[in-house]
Amino acid sequence: MDKLVLCEANNVPLTPITFLKRASECYPKRTSIIDGQTRFTWPQTYDRCCRLASSLLSLNITKNDVVSILAPNVPAMYEVHFSVPMTGAVLNPINTRLDAKTIAVIIRHAEPKILFVDYEFASLIREVLRLLPSGESQAYPRIIFINEISSTVKPYSKELDYEDLIRKGDPKVSSSMFCVHDEHDPISLNYTSGTTSEPKGVVISHRAAYLTVLSSIISMEMRLFPVYLWTLPMFHSNGWTHTWSVAARGGTNICMRNVTALDIYKNIELYNVTHMSCVPTVFKILLEGDGTDQTRLSRPVRVITGGSPPPAALLQKVQKLGFQVMHAYGLTEATGSVLSCEWQDEWNRLPKHQQMQLKARQGVSNLAIAEVDVKNTKTQESVPRDGKTIGEIVIKGSTMMKGYLKNPKATAEVFKDGWLNTGDIGVIYPDGHVEIKDRSKDIIISGGENISRIEVEKVLYDHKKVMEAAVVAMPHSLWGETPCAFVVLKKGETNQGYGEKESMKTKEKDLIKHCRENMPHFMCPRKVVFLEELPKNGNGKILKPKLREIAKGLVVDEDDTGSKKVQGGSVNQVSSRL
Amino acid sequence: MDKLVLCEANNVPLTPITFLKRASECYPKRTSIIDGQTRFTWPQTYDRCCRLASSLLSLNITKNDVVSILAPNVPAMYEVHFSVPMTGAVLNPINTRLDAKTIAVIIRHAEPKILFVDYEFASLIREVLRLLPSGESQAYPRIIFINEISSTVKPYSKELDYEDLIRKGDPKVSSSMFCVHDEHDPISLNYTSGTTSEPKGVVISHRAAYLTVLSSIISMEMRLFPVYLWTLPMFHSNGWTHTWSVAARGGTNICMRNVTALDIYKNIELYNVTHMSCVPTVFKILLEGDGTDQTRLSRPVRVITGGSPPPAALLQKVQKLGFQVMHAYGLTEATGSVLSCEWQDEWNRLPKHQQMQLKARQGVSNLAIAEVDVKNTKTQESVPRDGKTIGEIVIKGSTMMKGYLKNPKATAEVFKDGWLNTGDIGVIYPDGHVEIKDRSKDIIISGGENISRIEVEKVLYDHKKVMEAAVVAMPHSLWGETPCAFVVLKKGETNQGYGEKESMKTKEKDLIKHCRENMPHFMCPRKVVFLEELPKNGNGKILKPKLREIAKGLVVDEDDTGSKKVQGGSVNQVSSRL
């Protein structure tokens, strides 16, 4: 047995970029991408990706180089998921909801050689470039602008235009040039939160991406030729890896620059959409569309949702419209999907509200996950499968990330004891389904985006009048959760800064303004509560559960989101208005 | 990027045995196996496999040891697919259609430490043991008999009974003991043809099996909780890897000792069967059932067929009964399925006969295959995708075998030029679908089993009266193909041996008798044609196409298969009567 050696024929590295060449050969007449008037077939998409890869090579892009992109869900955003790793480089899709300062931090950390920028973010990126230190030449990536494909106006330097690179690229550069030699090599770099001090860049391997694609196709039961509507930003964990899945199934990508109820319903009917993924926030958008959009779908659309647990009532309303919701749980560190709430036919006989409770559970492990467990955080022992005893959700398997870029401390911490420690607290039921019972201690999930409580607290602490601050999640009708700050003002400062006569409202506005000046808007607390002191236990540890209890009863001032009309704008754009 | 190292949490070897533990945890109440009155749940199957693995360990089974099994589709046959590789050993399921002599050759070659034998094959195995040379002690495997689970009679030595080993095994032996440390380690050893001189034992890795399972689930669109009817022998490429797939999807295995029309229809209705796999020969059994069995199914059953191309007329008849046939192509050397005829909805609008022609094509590559191509056998260049130009089908990917056990020459030959060279001749259509146009030069496929023409010719040449022999496939109504021999008798012998007055019939019977004495019956020619000389080209090479042309027009004497009643007996049993 030992004498059999691996060879070129039987040891091919696993990478999802093989799905593109296969799609071009096996589905030659199928439409790969629709973006308004623009349509491509799979051979065209393959041709465009080969051309772009060859242009990147001629720009000296090579193995392990980082190539970043700041773009909405347009064809270029889809194409870079293949063309960048084809060259051996690592794709870094940047969250378009971030502010210039945070993007600058990411760019200094990731050190991309090239940064693709959609024209929509032209002024944002100019601000980012101003923030990069002038001394560090390597910190300046080469900018390549992405315009509308149909556009004939070239407002930017001709040499740095995406379509120009495609035109100039050589489609005949042998595909063997694009080979991945080791499946453990990185394919993408995804930042989990826009932090200013310690950015966490998750490095994903070709192997992890490939295996996640296969197991996600199975868990979401994505049959041949799906029509996939891009309501989920592709920058979010590479669109939960569905960028590659759609190629694997020979499907059609329906691009959307802006996620509005009108556009979603229009696209669903126009193209017979079969699948979409989104955070529960998008359900709100669907339900709160202005009435004319809200129609029962003529055929069911399978929706994968995750990011935060969907409330049962919301699920029921959305299902009534014709959406078949499947709940999944994942994290960037696990290359996307980890658990899926696999539906069992006999559950259809249960009362509706009970069905929705079952559906709100995160579910069972996908096939690419070797093991999932819930462990007592102190003893490290598995909790009983009783649906009651809480513990931390831990995972192992080949789809876990390689680690955090340039952050060995955080990498070692998250991987301690031979598991990926998710930081999420949950229970496990006798039927094997996992349910998250509490957010992990540090994370607030707002509109599907993670907000680190520690980072928000840091900014609050920077304010000269703040003595103590604690941030917890509070429920929000549109975003699911939003940060709520509890603040104790400095004793001496109380009178100096804010006179007795200044209202709570003014003090609150002042602190929120301070936050907005120092972090992305979506991370800012929407509510500040002033206390004489924070509730603490005997050891001086802040009693977070008590604060969460208070936050639950609070109401956000809805002056900027109360409008029922969620107009033009993707989730990120709506958010950036806030 | 280079500083990120693999660790226990993110680098878990890929192996299909993980699917069993997962099924026991995620589908704890689901039925895993039904075999007559016997029923198990997934936790019970997991428990039984752990116990058996622990017993195997206590019998000193260790990494890379071979454990063989000779059994029909009974629960034990299913369980060894998990319990044997759990110990690090290699499973060798032996074709039950083979004769004692061939099995003895396999056992001498594979050198199993243990041989599981179903009681049905008790006398066959006694014959096999007699054939093993007495001098070679390592050639004698330890025999463990498999009885009916419900049986209380223990006709064989108590220590060597399968159920006893399960009872004595320790289910609590930590599952970490069963870890596979390298996914490239072998999981199974499958012999491709019962040859006497040069057995070809295909060694399959855990990685290849795992990836084939995922990609087969996708290509056959096997949804959650399939009810899988075992019409395909599990010894055949590990049941085309569906042994492991059913565990991955939390399905139910319906075992069948004998494949009869009556039992197939009965099981389908009784258990709401959703899936089965079989060679086209089984379609004949379904259609030729004695009438009372033949009912239109109350719900559709998805049937994966392969082994030999199903004739369009046969497909159409079977589909009318309610079977949804999917055509696939695979080979043992590729761990099972390679191509699948992915059905496209728009084809439903074509005339029925055209649909069946499309369905008879072998199809497009599964996702675990890195590349499939059809190459000109002389120039090694890809043939044009015109559906006309023939070439050899070649494959590469991580699901290709590790090689042939103890046969470096055959391994090097099949892997030459960085591809697995299938030996099958086909064309590739503009839509990427591959169709096999001719059997590979050496192989005749009879009832799904490969017969090497060379081996049959060898036996014929051994006959003292034969001067020249050439064997080709001839069509057969039940088996798809059967060997047809063209023989030139020795000049001197013609008169000495067979007097002028001896009829052709007598001569033919004499040669077939000789074959039956020297090889498994299913490999014997059913027709012998005597010629003055074989047709040859200028270089003296026999013109096989000309012989095939003649063979096409011949009719087999149907005295032993003409009966419409295909009674009691699996495909292999029916065949062993022939």
Automatic annotation (TrEMBL), chains A, B:
Which Gene Ontology molecular-function terms are recorded? ligase activity
Domain AMP-dependent synthetase/ligase: start-end pairs: 21-405
> Locations of Polar residues compositional bias?
569-578
- State a single Pfam family of this protein: AMP-binding_C
Q: Which keywords annotate this record? A: Ligase
InterPro entries in the cross-refs: AMP-bd_C (IPR025110), AMP-bd_C_sf (IPR045851), AMP-binding_CS (IPR020845), AMP-dep_synth/lig_dom (IPR000873), ANL_N_sf (IPR042099)
Instruction: Give the start-end ranges of region Disordered.
Output: 558-578
Q: Which residues cross the membrane?
A: none
- Record bears the keyword Ligase: yes
Q: Does the keyword Ligase apply?
A: yes
Q: Which SUPFAM superfamilies match?
A: Acetyl-CoA synthetase-like (SSF56801)
Q: Name all AMP-binding enzyme C-terminal domain ranges.
A: 455-541
The family note in this entry says:
Belongs to the ATP-dependent AMP-binding enzyme family.
Record PANTHER family: ACYL-ACTIVATING ENZYME, BUTYRATE--COA LIGASE AAE11, PEROXISOMAL
Q: In its UniProt entry, what is this protein called?
A: 4-coumarate--CoA ligase
Q: Which organism is it from?
A: Capsella rubella
